[in-house]
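User: I'm putting together a small comparison set for a docking exercise, and I want a reference complex before I start. The sequence is below, and the ligand is 3-phosphoglyceric acid. Could you produce the 3D structure with the ligand included, as structure tokens?
Assistant: Of course. I'll restate your input first, then give the structure tokens for the complex.
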Amino acid sequence: MSAVAEVTRIGIVPVVVIDDPGRAHALAEALLAGGIGCAEFTLRTPAGIAALRAAAAVPGFLAGAGTVLTVDQAKAAADAGAAFAVSPGYDPAVAGAVAGHGVTMIPGVATPTEVQRAFGDGFAHVKVFPAGLLGGPAYLDALAAPFREVAFLPSGGVAPDDVGPYLRRPHVFAVSGSWMVPRAAIADGDFDLISTRSRAAAEARDAARAGS
Ligand code: 3PG
């Protein structure tokens, strides 16, 4: 199964900002226990790459890189075993570097022009950032009208109650956000909180898919 197909199946992408790579293994297990088998490890901290590498080694867990801003970061993410990579914006050089290393790129977009450019370059699965500020589900509906073959990953300002409304839309392949994985909870080793929040999100996902 491709990484995008796996992310679509999981439906929720936690956005991780981590300070200690030694927490990554337990974090991945806590997410799996909550019913979410993937995460985006942002490269915003020096620990990001090592955490990604550790999480990628956890059986049954799909580890991606987040906040991939440069070609060098794209290469480092690929070397660390990222299955997918996410950017807040779209840079063809970065996206090409990721793809050249066998990693699935999910570029970020905010406007119709950016969607059109990314789609024209072959990216039919894009992150919409910051989705909440841009207008939430209604904004994605407006984008989906002309871009019939593009699927969206809303991120930025997504709240727990937004999971159902987003995932009920056929043009949304997954939702993404940090609320399940607070930076302080990771640092404190509060993995029960992470599993509890993940389970709630997974239940909202399952309810949306069941049509309720
Ligand atoms: C990000 O890149 O920070 C993500 O979009 C997560 O945003 P959030 O913290 O608002 O969930």
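The pocket of 3-phosphoglyceric acid is lined by residues 15, 88, 129, 155-158, 176-179 (CB under 6 Å). The first helix runs from residue 3 to 10.
User: Thanks, that's exactly what I needed.
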